Amino acid sequence: MTSEPLLPGDPATGPEPAAPADVVARQRAELERLRDLAATTALLERAKGVLMAVTGCAPDAAHEELLRRAKGGNRSLVEQCWLTLGALPPPRERPARPAPPPASAGASAGAGAITGTAAGESASVGTGDSAEVLEALGQALVRVGSPHELAGCLLDRLAPEVAADAVLLYEQLPEDGLALIGHAGVEAALAAQWRHVPPVPGLPALEALRSGRPRWLEHPAEDRARHLLIGPPERWLTRAWLPVPEGDTARVALGVLRRRDAPFTPRERELLRSVARLCAGRLRAFDSPRDAGAGDVSGTVQAVFDALPGQAVLLTPLRAASGEVTDYRIAAATPEATDVFGQTGRDPVGRHLLENYPAVAGAPLWRGCLRALETGVPYESEPFAYQDAGVPAPATATYTVRAAPLGEGLVVTWLRYDPVDRQEQRLADVQRLGNLGWANWNLLTGEIAWAAQTYTVLGLRADRPPLPLERLPELAQPEDTRPLARAITGLISHGHPLDVPFRTGTAMGVRHLRMVAEAVTTPDGTPVEVHGFVQDLTAQRSAELALVESEREMLLQRGTLEAERALAARLQHALLPLPSKPVRLAGLRVEVAYLPAQAGIHVGGDWFSAIELPDSDALFVVGDVAGHGIDAVATMAQLRFTAKGMVSTGSSLTGALARLNQLLLHSRDGQITATMVLARYDPDRQVLAWAQAGHPPPLLVRGGEVRLLDRPGGMLLGATAAPVYESLELRLEPGDRLLLYTDGLVERPGEGLDAGFARLAEAVRTHGCGESGSLDALLASMLADERRDDVCVLDIRMPLGEVHDAPAPPVTDA
Question: Are 278 and 153 in contact (CB under 8 A)?
Fold first, then answer.
């Protein structure tokens, strides 16, 4: 007999004998009592669920709290349940009793601000608005069924209260990392990228869990330097990470991310702390038995069915206005119940019987169920053959069905009988596909039966006799002999189930096996027979070991990359400090922007220089070293300081480029290349002389017109031993604007450079013409998408008229 589809039809059977009138009356009275009991139980379970979600207490504590509130308010338990659910009881459940006295002024301020006290109870104490928010949130959490739904519910409620833009729920893993269990307000790709986070230093969520205290990230610049931030730092400027308390510890961290660049107010902090405490109960409730989903069947009934063996369902009749039964709804099911769609256990709960089996309507099974409902006498069919047309491969099987009244519904059980040869074939297929074999030992007669696959799994010849149960440890490796022998002794002596992994040596090498067995015992508990199987887990174990090794290597590589990134970032910041505002050089206004890439290790070889030379000329340099990381930063520093030194000591622009080319050729095995623009401005002549080495041309804005300068000849540095470098001169006029930039500003994947230059010119016309043109607006327009490379820009402008501001002192790194 096997688990098979629900409720097939059966052949006609003879009429059932009528029940005596007094028996029917007693049964109906009992049904009425059971119905009232079921309704009261369902009401109590729902009220307890509300308290568990709102206060985070256990089921027993919730029941005690309901009793305490009922006694304190001079109410019945049923009345208190209705009040907790936020509604008045029906008239027949509302007995006349005096109104409860008003709460005393000295009532203690407990968790009212969190739990949301129902009408008729003591008024909650708290900050009015926050108390209402928490009460509404507590009621909403009752309908939440998973951590992911919890995150969405929190975002809906917290967005108007604390300006939340995203909510994340991370659970601490046994190995001290974090796993994302719920999120809202973030894209699926970003959630997948941060689904698993190793225990790296500077992770605010992990710090909050370890310390048990919230982490408030309210200073974007400092937070980027001190913490590993989940998601783009510029997207969420302020963040809060709060531990969700679970007794004295916390295993879940609640993250609230905001675009608002402002600290959390005291009210917002206290509200978020209360929300974290509120979530604790709901997270625990996810592991509690759920309501079966039937309006008139409580979760207790489904819990009873969860413990029943075999295949059984509880059917609730659906009646027309005339009272006639038109269909049945599956209100509860046992774990072994299976329908034709492959649904098992609770999966078919809530479906209608005729949805799955329309041919049942009017059949003998249908009539038998109706008689059982009307008379209270169970119905049991004779064995019958049934062909299930709903299965992809129709097959005929033999069934028996039994329907017994329970309350206003029916408990229906069934058995399917398969031919022995079909059972044996299926068993052989299962053993072969699962790489396992069954074995039976009769402890009274000494008979032993093994499947052929068992010999294969154990690596034994099929012509040798099967081993007695107590001799199986002889096959195990020495390290595994004692645990296996101890488990077999407990199975034989006391009937304890056995589930033990062990290794065995074969001609093909060491195999990883698993043995599972249980005993058949007499009424006094004495084991008389053992049924079990052995399974070969070698392939699975090898894959697990390979995966563990791969994960270890990935974590090691990630740590190395993070360390390199941090070192390179500190080195770059030390070598390339950025000015906080525009500066004056040789009568020109100079503004600088540097933006690192958003991918990779975020540090590269882009650099700039803007200094005033000893003869009052101004030197402007923009360069780009190929690659990222420590080598790129080191080469950038070498070129940057060497170029300034050579021009400061009298070298020409082209001569400096030629020497820098030789420097790259003779350093680091000649494997690094770089591009550069060198420009020198003479304030007396108002002439800018410039040369370039494979670098994008400067962009000139004059009189509302935008154009790229024609480039003088020049090969990129480090490409050849005999390059030729030329220079050109440009006379600047009042109102002129000149942009020197690196290729990260104009390059895009799959797009030519000409298209990038055209896009830059259009952006300058839109955001950059005139003295008021904003460099920030220009960069925002050009870099709307993710930056795949560093971007460095020098914005040089000649004022329209006399500028009376005091000139800025010479600077080393403008």
Answer: no
